[in-house]
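Input set for joint prediction.
Command: fold jointly, output tokens.
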Amino acid sequence: MAFKSEELAKAYWRENIGLVLKLLAIWFLVSYGFGIILVDWLNQFTFFGFKLGFWFAQQGAIITFVILIFVYVKRMAALDNKYEVHEE
Amino acid sequence: MDIQTLTFIIVGLTFALYIAIAIWSRAGSTNDFYVAGGGVHPVLNGMATAADWMSAASFISMAGIIAFAGYDGSVYLMGWTGGYVLLALCLAPYLRKFGKFTVPDFIGDRYYSQTARTIAVLCAILISFTYIAGQMRGVGVVFSRFLEVEIATGVIIGAVIVFFYTVLGGMKGITYTQVAQFCVLAFAYLVPAIFISIYMTGHFLPQSGFGGTIAEGVAGEGNFLLARLDGLSEELGLAAYTEGVRSKIDVFAITCALMVGTAGLPHVIVRFFTVPKVHDARRSAGWALVFISLVYLTAPSIAAFAKVNLINTLNGPELTGVEYENAPTWVKNWEKTGLITWEDTNGDGKMFYSGDERNEMTVDRDIIVLANPEIADLPAWVVALVAAGGVAAALSTSAGLLLVISTSISHDLLKRTLAPNITDRQELLSARIAAAVAIALSVWFGIHPPGFVAQVVAFAFGLAAASFFPAIILGIFHKRMNSTGAIAGMVVGVVFTLSYIIYFKFISPELNTAEHWLFSVSPEGIGTVGMLLNFIVAVAVHKLTGDAPQQTQELVESIRYPRGAGGAVDH
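tokens >
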């Protein structure tokens, strides 16, 4: 056991899951939300020559995905350090 | 120099490079053969993953599909990138900490069951094989077009090359070869796009250029390109480019099947065993997506430019049709392959492309990327470069898949199940024999394809979504999940999905329309339903059969934090 106590292990896992769920909510919103469910409504707005819903479906979602992963990498590294379970 | 000679030179040079790398990094031990000794830098690993991942379907066929399907083509863009978020957040770090070679290894150990392992091996072989059968066809198409050989010869030449560096190099050879292949394919994809963007809209960046206005001297100048495309589509009786015709639920299901399938593909997952640390596994997934985005953010612009260009060159700027006598050379070139045809139905001697009864052209959507530089009248070396890129995309993916098939058989099936006493040497030898047999079979499927490349590839994703993804997710996030539940889930998921696909594609293809589909989900999206079934069955069976043993639950606890991750180890 790398954690000092059972409670710390649980707290680490809880924070991890919380972060993942938050990021997955954004992941769902930009692709399934903006790109599919709300696409017709968003298409009334334009964004640099693109209909907004169409843009999310073809480009916006992908750009958001990349950002999400790097945010995750950074936040998880901080979390690992906080609970002292990072790799030596 | 003509296009033919230039193609030979450029494709030849890139081949020499790949083979040189494969020989230079010849694998010594089994560990090297499978996972490059766990010592590949995350940025390089990300690049290799990107090449491994982007197949002939991504490179050759995706932009063409988008050009013809418009908004509906977005399912591929979102579906084939969104899976990396799932991979990075929910799979890669934990599987890396687990530290075994393959997905069936994880499933077998996590579910403490030989049966679970064997089912996982069979699923891995089924998925990889479905996928590689499509790739070999892709290799064959590119070779036969640009080297002007029979498709069968093209498939065989490609197969020999793939066999060489898979078998000689193993994973390490593949990793560095794939880095080179990524560079070739990304360059080949971006260069024509930049040229065309400057010509069409005056924008240097194609990714934002297709939102711009049409440049001077091009039909429709001053209008927004996408608005012009919507207008043209309406005039020609086609669906508006920026709106789709598929039902929302089907778009949702296909996107989900492709995303989840990406996260469950064994040849992609195995990539994350090849980095030194858990932290690197997370970063690797991010870098892979950065490199993939280079191509995927460009694809929709290539699609839009190509569609406008196609309409302009076939129908003329006034949309009155172009005399067949004056047809551009690319039309004549591709007519020889039978992928473009013209039938002068109204007898006026002019070509006309539309979505209604005025239409006189059939244009195969798979030629768009390859023909695009010719359509835009780009220099011959760009055309040759695109050929090299197509070959790189098809070869890199085939090699990765072949490795999964050969390790599944030699490592998972032989060493772990049937003949546990074989030596390292014998294991390596059987991996090579398995690769040879797999490639011989895929050559046969490449010459006698069971369907369109992109379709076959999409089915591989559906199968991965319905089999592996739930078993891995439950294995990590539901520590009490037991083997009976996981096995039942995998079997139900994969059998359901496979039956649905076989029913609509092979048994009753005439019924393959929205009103006959279950919940109006097409065979391409059915993996989503299969995945949900897998989850439901697994959880229900678990409720009835009790928790996983304490030892397994402790194992699951231990993969949930990074400290103590060693290199990938054998048992």
